[in-house]
Amino acid sequence: xxxxxxxxxxxxxxxxxxxxxxxxxxxxxxxxxxxxxxxxxxxxxxxxxxxxxxxxxxxxxxxxxxxxxxxxxxxxxxxxxxxxxxxxxxxxxxxxxxxxxxxxxxxxxxxxxxxxxxxxxxxxxxxxxxxxxxxxxxx
Length: 139
Hints:
Helix content is 36%, strand content 7%. The chain contains four helices and three strands; from the N terminus they run αβαββαα. The protein has helices spanning 41-57, 69-81, 114-118, 124-138, and strands spanning 63-64, 98-101, 104-107. A hairpin with a 2-residue loop joins strand 2 and strand 3 (104-107). Helix 1 crosses helix 2. It starts with 40 loop residues before the first helix and ends with a helix.
């Protein structure tokens, strides 16, 4: 996010180290790490009201970057819960997949997990491309 101009510094090591997000916010579909860090659909659905409410409260929000297919699906569900229905057929997740739903643009990215970064499925350049595109879309 720093390389795309969305964060004040490249790393954060503590809560008070000066990191500031610039025109961006980080949130989660799930609010707690489940056993084995593998959230279930039920756990996602229990947390969706929080995400839906955050989206409603962020009046200037235009671009949403779900990290991974689970988050993509969660955002689609959260938008539907506030009356913003996805088009049919339902938009499919993919890296740099882009779709407009109401006033929001969803821009997909592979999740930056070790499984994806260590195997090269997601490279720093690929993630940079996502955040640069998100910044461009948001104006």
